[in-house]
Structure formats: C-alpha cells, structure tokens
C-alpha cells in the first residue's frame, strides 16, 4: 500500500501542496485527477523523491528510498526515449538500473514486444519506430521489471483507440498481478472505466477521496435518462427537475435536485404503461469533476 | 554503486561508439600521417639529381670527403662541362669545383640557388682540414714540431650536483606538452559533457532514470563515464606513443631525429609521468563538473556554447596565464595561482617542471584542489535533480535559483 500523509510543498512563496493525504491499495487502481496545476505532478514527483516535500510517504510501510526505486515503474506524461539507441539498448539501460540482468531483459523484452504488438525488432533503433511504437517501448521500460508500485502520468495521451484498449488490458493485468497502480488522466471515461479508487485534488488539496462507486453515489441518484413521448416542455415543468436535455441517443436527460423525486417522475413519464428506457443514476465523474474543480 | 557503474558504462559506450570520438582520437594521427606523407612526397618527388650538388675536385681524395650525403651531393659528374650541361638542363642544383693552385685550395660553387647552411659548413670544414694538412706538408716540420702543433686545448667539466631538470629544452618541451594537453582535453570534453547534459535536460527520460536511481548518483556516473572516455582517449595516445618510441629507432625516416633527441624524449616523459598527471586528472574532473553544471542550466543543446563560456574563460585564463608566465622564474602570480583550484592544474605542474616547490606547498595545493573537486561534485550532485527536471527556458541564473528551490 502507498500511503501519503500531510504532504506539503512550496516553490518559493507559492504553496503547491497543502496537506495531501490518501492511500492507494495493492491490487487496485487509484485515479489521481485534478485540473492542470492542481498539484498532481508534484505529488508524483514527491513520491519519486524528485522534490523534497514535508509530510510522510510510505510504500509497504517503509519510506521510499533508493532501495525502493527498484519496485517502482514510472511512465511520465510526455514520452521520451534515447533515439540513437536500439530498442534493446534502451530497455537494457533502464531495466539494468532496476536490477534485471541482461539475460532476463532479453527474455522478457521479446515477450513484451509480442504482447504489445510492437512493429519492430529489439535491434531496431528507437528513432526508426513510429510514435505509437515508441510509446509502447516506453511502457515496456516501465513494466518490464514487474514493479510493485506503478505510477502512470496520463498514459493514454496520444494513443489511438486500439492502443488505448490494449493499454487498458495491460493495466488491468498489472492490477491482477497485485501491483499498486496510481494514474492520472484528464479523460474521466478512462478513469471511470479503470479505477477502483479516486483521489481528486484541487488547488493543492484533496477534495474527494475513496471508492469511485461510493463517491458517485454520495452525490445522489440525481440524473434520469428516459425515453418517453412526454414533451420536453412538460418535463421541464415537473417538480424537482432542474434541467432537461436530449442525449445523442435521443433520450431525455433530467437533472433533479432530490433523488426521491425519481418515483414521481417515473409515474408521470410512464403513465403506468411501457417505456423503453428509464434509468436513474448518480452524476458522472466528469460532472463531479467539473462541480468540484469549480468549472461549472 | 552498481547503478553508478551502469551509468558509467552507458555513458562510456555511447560516447566511445560515436563517430565524433573516433575522429577526435584519430585527428592527431591523421595530421601526423599527412605531415609525414607530404614531407616524404615532396622529398621523393624531385626526380634524379635536380636537388643535388655535384662535386668536381682536383685532388681526387677530397671528392669523397666533400660528399655530405648521397641525397644532397653526387660524384657522378667528372668534368665541369658535364656538370655545366646538367645544371643548364636543371638536373643539378649546382656544382662545386675545387682546384689546388700553388698549395692553396680554391673552391667555387656554381648553382641556381645558394648552398644550404649545412652544405656550406661541411664543405668549409673539409676544405679547411685538407688545407691544414697541405700547409703542414709544405712547412716540412719535424715530428716534434708536428706533435707540438697538434696539441689541442682540453675542456673538463666537474659537476657537483646533477639536476635532472636543469635542462631548458626539456623544461620547455615538457611545459608546452602538458599545457597543450590540458587545453586540448578541456576544450574538447567540457563542451562534450555540457552538450550531453543540455540535450538530456528537460527530457522525460531523465524522470524515468531518476525514478530508478538518485539523481546525485546518476550525475556521478555521468562524470565518471566521461572521465573514462578521456582516460581511454589518452591511453590510445600513450599506446601510440609507446609504439612510436619502440619503432622510431628502427624507421629510416625517424631514426636520426630520434637518436639525436633520445635523452630529451626520455626526460620529457619523466616530467609528464609524475605528480603532474594527478594535477591533469583532478583538473579535468573539476572542469568537467563545472561544465556539467553549466550544461544543466540551459534547456536547448544549441545554447551550450553560451552556457559553457564561464568554463572556457577559466580554461583560457589558466592556459594563457601559464603560457605567458610559465617561463618566468620565481613569479609571484605563478606561485599564488598554483594554490587556486582550477588554476592550480595549469600552474603547479609548471612549478614542478621548472623548480622544486616545497613538499608542503605541493601537498597543500593538491589538498585544496581535491577538496574543491569533491565539494563541487557533491554540491552539483545534490542540485542535479532540481536543475535537470526543469523544462522552462528562463535563463541560466534563474534556472540555477529554481534548482536551489526545488531541492
């Protein structure tokens, strides 16, 4: 388990982190979300000891030191490799630093190249690979030593849908292996799809923390999706309905201020007869994000 | 330690495997080969006797004595007429006619250009000796008078203290070699290391590396890796030098020069292979660390030349200072500079070559240099993460201040 307690960090007079605390558990994926400049990268950098911060960071109940580095796999936000090296030379250098022998690296690399469907051989120069394949090589560098703590900073940026799905599967496999996985992303769909837990930071403080399902439900079942013949104007006039819009699928999306009013709305829109869709849900993560980050 | 070793190896591999390193190592050899080649070609390109002086001497026994060497003189022409013809056909540089008239030798040189200094002294020397023997014959002296005339003065040398370094040529050559060696290494490798670091700075690969090992250790590995490259570079020259040392006495082209300067070469090597090497080594490390610091202050590799300027100025102060003041005896500036880290690598070796500084002075100077090298390395090592992980182009000073804040 990764545990962060009361993390503070200032750059000069600017306070970037103001008492951040959260836990990320083994075998679970924790999403770290927040607006640009909220402090996500500084949290990652503090975990990785790139910056000295006040507070306590422990992994498996021990402080993160040089010895712990071998248990960490880190994928930075922007991809960057050494273009003049071959794939093997690049992976060897980074994996050697993580304690793997050349023999192990060679064996594991070939498996990973197949698993990630990299179009290129281990002896190809990095610069000869496409951008997408370079990203895959970078992912191999992050995961080849089977880290116990995986930090992924916006791992899906720049990936096409096929590779996004491939990466999602890899992340889920790493979860099954029992790794602590913490990742940041601006796309809430990915976060919602993959994460078990969520930590939302805003202006250097944790504003939401916990199981993603409970977090959503804590905002109440205030969204209703319905397919009905009742006209939009009539829906807008109903008690407790704040907003009505039409989704791409042609359903009405009602925002209500009291989840208990759902039953009355159900009676009204169905009139005791069949409706194709009636779904009462909590707000989406995107909505919660906008709500909490103050963009609305 | 293992991780530092990995970085040393990687830095070493990357630099040694590059074309620029190969060119750097080979450039002096290429230059030497070209010089020798051009010299050899120009020497052999002149066909036949075109550069030779023909000797036409009346007393036949003189002819062989007047030959300086087969390359520059010839005895092929027996008469003035044939030599004259050869000269007009540009087959000869000139010809020397020696006649004996009334017991006096008269030598006349005819040519398209003047005799060389060596040739004219040789001819004069041989002719003077022969004239002397003619004079003695004509004087009809008895044995006793002859013996008395042949008495020569004696010069004896009684040296009480043999000073191995008391040889101006040895000092000058040692001094120049050491100075230019330092200058060449520093100019080349300070730029290389600064450029390498500047090209890494701000790239996310550094974050990946620093998530595997402390930035401080990576920095030490980088410096040691560069040092290994420098040592390899020097080792290639040392091996080349040894090969030359062994081959030079055998090769016709170098034999004469080598044998004439054998003592000088041995003494110069003795001057270089002592404490001076330690000064060169520590000097290279401290300058490399400073260059690394400068390289870490810029974001773009193309700004390296700007970033490295303070290091270059310091190298130039050391180099030109040593070049100007190095040969002046008992100079106060040289003495003071031999204790100042960075400059001491240029100035203390001069003192070690030219005089015998007291042991405590050498010890103190070395201690100061060593302490500064270690101190600067630790300081930059601790700042390294903060300096390297910055990606904003905010200028060198601001970048340095930010680096201080981050850590």
TrEMBL record, chain A:
N-terminal signal peptide: none
ATP-binding recorded as keyword: yes
Pfam families associated with the record: ABC_tran, DrrA1-3_C
InterPro entries: AAA+_ATPase, ABC_transporter-like_ATP-bd, ABC_transporter-like_CS, ABC_Transporter_VariousFunc, DrrA1/2-like_C, P-loop_NTPase
SUPFAM superfamilies: P-loop containing nucleoside triphosphate hydrolases
Keyword annotations: ATP-binding, Nucleotide-binding, Transport
Residue span, ABC transporter domain: 2-228
Protein name per Swiss-Prot or TrEMBL: ABC transporter, ATP-binding protein
Organism: Liquorilactobacillus satsumensis DSM 16230 = JCM 12392
Automatic annotation (TrEMBL), chain B:
Domain of life: Bacteria
MF terms in GO: ABC-type transporter activity
Main location: membrane
UniProt keyword list: Membrane, Transmembrane, Transmembrane helix
InterPro entries the UniProt entry points to: ABC2_TM (IPR013525)
One Pfam family recorded for the sequence: ABC2_membrane_3
Residues in the signal sequence: none
Occurrences of domain ABC-2 type transporter transmembrane (ranges): 19-375
Membrane-crossing segments per the record: 21-43, 172-198, 219-248, 277-299, 311-326, 332-350, 362-380
GO CC terms: membrane
Membrane topology label: Multi-pass membrane protein
Intracellular or extracellular location(s): Membrane
Protein name: ABC transporter, permease
